[in-house]
Write a structure and sequence with these properties.
- By secondary structure, this protein is of the alpha/beta class.
- It is 38% helix and 18% strand.
- Helix 3 links the parallel strand 5 and strand 6.
- Helix 2 crosses helix 3 and helix 6 runs parallel beside helix 7.
- It is globular and about 45 Å long.
Length: 207
């Protein structure tokens, strides 16, 4: 899980990634806790669901942005967190999160062309879970993605989010899992976390 092992060319691409303050929010205390939020949409969303609904045999669920904000607010209340490190493959989710959380958090996000890196938002909405035409693997095979941007943006997000103190995400997302495991490996303890779909538990639960 060492994101430093990406090779010289990959390292240059990752180091070139830029992050910006997307929402000024309240003043941030240097000692305040930070929340990592990962919102996975892209090709992974066949239907909208409520937290706790994780069934995806026929359609893969995704969750409205407000559920991520509400989970982050619980960590703010408990730990005093004022900064969110937000990673998402969806420009819409970014806009929604900033609109709802702008007066509650300082939101930091990577500056990246998400369409070039991961594709258009919600291309699989309303389709069957086994319709793979819009999966990132299929679009990559068709040459529709900027592979360097895909790689660099994911690794840069992993390196940023692993520094947070708490995590809001979904356990069915591989990127969310990696963030969680990096945080766990860095600290040696399970970080405070909220998975909107289901717990990240024994291998039988998630693999």
């Amino acid at each position: 899980l060492a994101t430093t092992q990406v090779g010289a060319c990959g390292r240059r691409a990752v180091d070139a990634a830029r992050f910006e303050l997307a929402a000024a929010g309240p003043a941030a205390d240097a000692s305040a806790a930070t929340i990592a939020v990962h919102i996975r949409r892209g090709d992974a969303c066949n239907r909208w669901a409520e937290p706790g609904d994780w069934a995806f045999d026929e359609s893969r669920p995704c969750y409205a942005t407000t559920h991520y904000v509400q989970a982050a607010l619980k960590f703010k209340k408990r730990y005093g967190a004022t900064v969110v490190l937000l990673a998402t493959d969806s420009d819409a989710a970014l806009r929604e999160f900033v609109a709802e959380a702008a007066d509650r958090f300082r939101v930091v996000v990577q500056v990246v062309d998400r369409v070039a890196a991961t594709g258009a938002d919600l291309p699989s909405l309303g389709k069957h879970a086994h319709d793979t035409a819009q999966f990132i693997e299929s679009r990559n095979a068709r040459g529709e993605l900027d592979r360097a941007a895909t790689f660099a943006s994911i690794v840069a997000d992993l390196e940023a989010l692993r520094t947070a103190d708490a995590l809001v995400a979904t356990s069915n997302s591989w990127v969310s899992r990696l963030v969680f495991l990096l945080m766990l490996g860095d600290r040696g303890v399970v970080p405070p976390h909220a998975f909107l779909d289901r717990r990240f538990g024994a291998p039988a639960d998630v693999w």
